[in-house]
Design goal:
With 909 residues, this protein is an alpha+beta fold. The protein has 31 helices and 27 strands. Bound molecules: adenosine-5'-triphosphate.
């Protein structure tokens, strides 16, 4: 037990303590806490998290289900029916309303749970030093005394007293309201300093805009400054999306229209037809209920929630629900190269110095493989060794073997490959680094594309080591290390040719240089990085991901363009693009081309180009805007802090879960758990499926409701005997139709989902094809209902039996139509189509059982005034259902053959 763990972290003015005093106060050291000590402290201080906002009480959420004009209207009707002594009608209405509310309540709960679970999947991590080792731990497990490493793009995970700051800029707007990022250093400030002036502190929840730092955790959870201001995390995100809102608005307008229509019908039935007002009221209420697609928003919410769950299973975590809809409409995916399209497992495969080119053997990070120096050039090995040493010094990565003996990199993969290269050359990384400790550095940044480190030399001199994009390093060099081991004039043409040769083989190339300085510049700034002596190049292979190649092919068949936007060299990017099959002959442009084009020219360029190379984040933003200007729906990947604007601008911003910074993840709508391009394409596929399913739900709900209503309205207008009673109408609408319609939310993707072009972004949900479908199917249902009723009358059945047969015909036709609507785009008469899915089979079994009970169970007969249907009539009912299926399939086939509707084109089956 560590006795000194139970200290108060809140009473101290940490900003006025010197770093070492702060460490001492927390009984911590610069090597970080011992893991056992951290565990003890965690038990004492609790997790580093803010309590979640409580959810609404379940009863309140259940009551919210009744907060719907239609439901209230129905309950009103039940009260009227009860008051008039129509107890059966009243209890059926109340029963149906209750069932509807409970189903809505349960489903909404499930949808919210699905979203809440995603919240957990995105739990943030922090990089810490514990027991002298770097480690990645959950932010929740940070304790006072921990040492946290900060980088650009990180969300500061706890209140920190900074022990080291290198160009550290922190955006503290959420605490201070100050929009300009604050510059940080280690120095203590006076105790009275305001929050915004405490330069030695980094506060939980603020965002690292640039630089690097190391901080000591001084407060966690509710003890932090942000914890004291707002001690609650936001609750579950809202389920509303633009589409849902549109459908809700449509539903409300439709409700108003239906009620007006119902009122007119009521007046007509009582005034003109001379119907008694009480039964007329009941029927009109039932019609209004049938007409209004009250279950539509609920079923669509469920469809979206299921889409979210399926995407999560495919490693795409949706942070904002509307992304589910937009993904399905994506027309262009702009993707990073390294780690998304490629594996980000780097291996150094060649070392080029002036006069020699050495092939390096081996694969992965295992330090096994020979450096193959051409015979007769052994003297040049010293130059290569110097270059490899430089690669080890200007490097933050470490290699270690895991429990299974696999070599793993901690840090940047390319830097890890440099460590492996050094070990293959017989160097001992730890000893070499310890012999030349780093005194300062300029961290790598995608904007300046190099990294520089400063090392003290025993002679009192300082050594500046630089690595970076080769043309960038060459531009800062004035000499090169010649074959003789002495500096000589720089041969730019030679190096350009060497870079082109390596890059066109798909290698990623880094240049290396150094400079001896008489004394160390304090602090190291860009001004010192000139007059370098160029050492040579290292080429790395980073093979494309096999699954990315397949996903690119999928995109091509789905009419989605893939554009690579990378910081890498044009030739490397073009070679990888060709390997991936991005297009038959990839067209390449560079960041400089983007700079040279004005907005209008860029729109033309962006449409044509497959690969944007040597870009920085600002280029990405312009490219997205240009593509959007051309009417494209753009999904864009990103990982760095500077990618946040383009992620926000894109229609779907996609951040990397592993490689990405907190800033990128927070700006994105979707986070990829595996950083893999294939997961974006899987999400697009799910997005298209969700949209298809929403359309199926609509293509299901509207005509089934419509058919039933049309039959009753026609009978009312023509003064015929009504083919159904009010409770029967409610039964069909709120039990059969809803149960069967719900399964459409669970439908898997149709086979051709990635073989057709993206939907037009502005396409109306109710396309001409859908409108035709709704009218045609409504008429078919009306015909079925009227037909069987007339048949029953003709056979001399009592009205009650004829009505029972009408309800049964509607039930059977709905079951057959369900199988038809499952495939909007293709034939339903297939084995897979007939077999259905478990959800379909369950729903059908449930509905068949309920319908049998409705027809034959004595208590149901009393409740709904139904009668036993004779066998012959039962068989006829089944035949009508099957015939309706045949008619619908013929209609689908003819429409496809005549190519009447755009959306049926391009689907052969
Ligand atoms: P992508 O944008 O597809 O991820 P990328 O990783 O090549 O590609 P950046 O990370 O912006 O893009 O890197 C741009 C260039 O900077 C690289 O091609 C490389 O030459 C150089 N570079 C990358 N990482 C480092 C590093 N750690 N140190 C020095 N130079 C680097």
């Amino acid at each position: 037990m560590v006795s000194s763990t139970a200290f108060s972290t809140s009473a101290q003015d940490w900003h006025s303590l010197a770093p070492d005093a702060a460490l001492a106060a927390l009984n911590a050291s610069r090597a970080g806490l011992d893991p056992a000590d951290a565990a003890v402290r965690l038990a004492a201080h609790g997790p580093n998290a803010l309590p979640a906002a409580p959810r609404a009480h379940p009863l309140r959420r259940l009551l919210a289900q009744f907060n719907n004009a239609l439901i209230l209207f129905l309950l009103g009707a039940a009260v009227v029916a009860g008051a008039l002594g129509h107890w059966v009608d009243a209890s059926v209405i109340v029963g149906v309303v209750l069932v509807n509310a409970i189903v809505g309540f349960v489903q909404e709960g499930k949808a919210e749970q699905a979203l809440a679970a995603l919240h957990g999947m995105l739990a943030p991590n922090a990089r810490v030093l514990r027991g002298g080792q770097r480690a990645t731990v959950a932010v929740a497990s940070l304790v006072p005394g921990d040492l946290v490493l900060l980088e650009a793009g990180d969300r500061v995970p706890a209140d920190l007293r900074l022990l080291r700051a290198r160009g550290l800029l922190v955006d503290e707007a959420i605490l201070t309201g100050e929009s300009v990022a604050a510059s940080k250093s280690e120095v203590a400030v006076e105790a009275a300093a305001a929050l915004g002036d405490r330069t030695g502190m980094a506060y939980s929840g603020t965002l690292v805009a640039a630089g690097q730092g190391l901080g000591l955790v001084v407060a966690t959870g509710v003890q932090t400054e942000i914890g004291r201001i707002s001690s609650l995390l936001g609750g579950v995100q809202s389920l509303a999306t633009p589409l849902l809102r549109k459908i809700d608005a449509f539903g409300r307008r439709f409700t108003a229209l239906s009620l007006a229509l119902a009122a007119a019908l009521f007046a007509f039935a009582v005034g003109v037809q001379g119907m008694e007002w009480v039964p007329a009221l009941m029927v009109v209420v039932a019609i209004a209920v049938s007409l209004v697609p009250e279950s539509l928003p609920a079923v669509i919410t469920i469809t979206l929630a299921i889409g979210v769950r399926r995407m999560a299973a495919r490693q795409a975590i949706v942070r904002r629900l509307p992304a589910v809809e937009t993904l399905g409409a994506t027309t262009v995916i702009c993707s990073d190269k390294t780690g998304t399209l490629t594996r980000n497992e780097m291996t150094a495969c060649r070392v080029a110095t002036a006069g020699a080119c050495i092939a390096v053997g081996g694969s992965g990070y295992a330090p096994v493989g020979a450096l193959d120096l051409p015979p007769g050039q052994e003297a040049l090995a010293a130059n290569a060794r110097l270059l490899i040493e430089a690669g080890l010094l200007c490097n933050d990565a470490q290699l270690a073997q895991d429990a299974a003996g696999q070599w793993k990199v901690d840090g940047d993969p390319m830097e890890g490959a440099l460590v492996a290269l050094a070990m293959k050359a017989g160097l001992a990384p730890a000893a070499l680094r310890a012999g030349q400790p780093r005194s300062d550095e300029i961290p790598f940044d995608a904007q300046h594309r190099f990294m520089a480190t400063l090392h003290a030399h025993t002679s009192g001199q300082a050594l500046l080591v630089v690595k970076g994009a080769p043309e960038r390093v060459l531009a800062m060099a004035t000499a090169q290390l010649g074959a003789s081991g002495q500096p000589e004039p720089l041969d730019g043409a030679h190096w350009q040719a060497a870079i082109a040769a390596a890059a066109s083989a798909g290698e990623r190339v880094l240049g290396f240089a150094l400079r001896q300085l008489p004394s160390a510049p304090v602090p190291l700034d860009f001004g010192a990085v000139t007059d370098l002596v160029f050492l040579g190049l290292v080429g790395f292979i980073d093979p494309p991901r096999a699954e990315a190649m397949a996903a690119v092919a999928d995109c091509r068949s789905a009419g989605i363009r893939v554009k690579m936007i990378t910081g890498d060299h044009a030739a490397t990017a073009a070679a990888i693009a060709a390997q991936l099959g991005l297009s038959d002959a990839p067209v390449v442009a560079t960041g400089a081309d983007v700079d040279a084009a004005d907005d209008a020219a860029l729109r033309v360029l962006a449409a044509r180009v497959d690969v944007f190379a040597r870009t920085d984040p600002a280029h990405k933003l312009r490219v997205v805007r240009a593509l959007q200007g051309e009417g494209e729906v753009v999904a864009m990947t990103g990982d760095g802090v500077n990618d946040a604007p383009s992620l926000k601008q894109a229609d779907v911003g996609v951040a990397m879960g592993h490689k990405g910074t907190d800033a990128a993840r927070e700006a994105a709508q979707v986070v990829l758990a595996d950083d893999n391009f294939a997961s974006i394409v899987a999400a697009v596929r799910e997005g298209r499926t969700v949209y298809d399913n929403i359309r199926k739900v609509i293509a299901w709900t509207l005509p089934t409701n419509g058919g039933e209503v049309l039959a009753i309205v026609a009978a009312l207008l023509l003064g015929l005997t009504l083919p159904m009673t009010a409770p029967q109408i409610l039964w069909v609408n709120m039990v059969l139709t809803i149960t069967l319609g719900l399964v459409l939310a669970f439908e898997p993707a149709e086979p051709g989902v990635m073989a057709r072009p993206p939907r037009a972004p502005d396409a109306a949900l109710l396309s001409p094809f859908m409108l035709w479908r709704i009218v045609f199917v409504s008429l078919l249902f009306t015909l079925g209902a009227f037909g069987i009723f007339a048949w029953g009358q003709w056979r001399g059945h009592a009205d009650a039996l004829s009505r029972t047969m009408v309800v049964n015909v509607l039930c059977v036709m709905e079951i057959f139509y369900l199988f038809n609507v499952r495939y909007l785009h293709m034939r339903s008469f297939t084995w897979t189509g007939a077999r259905g899915t478990p959800a379909v089979l369950w729903a059908v079994a449930l509905v068949v059982m309920a319908q049998l009970a409705f027809t034959y169970a004595p208590w149901m007969q009393t409740l709904f005034d139904t009668r036993d249907v004779p066998l012959a009539d039962g068989l006829l009912i089944l035949a009508i259902g099957a015939a309706s299926m045949v008619v619908l399939e013929i209609e689908k086939a003819l429409l496809r053959r005549w190519r009447l509707f755009d959306e049926l084109k391009g689907n052969a089956t």
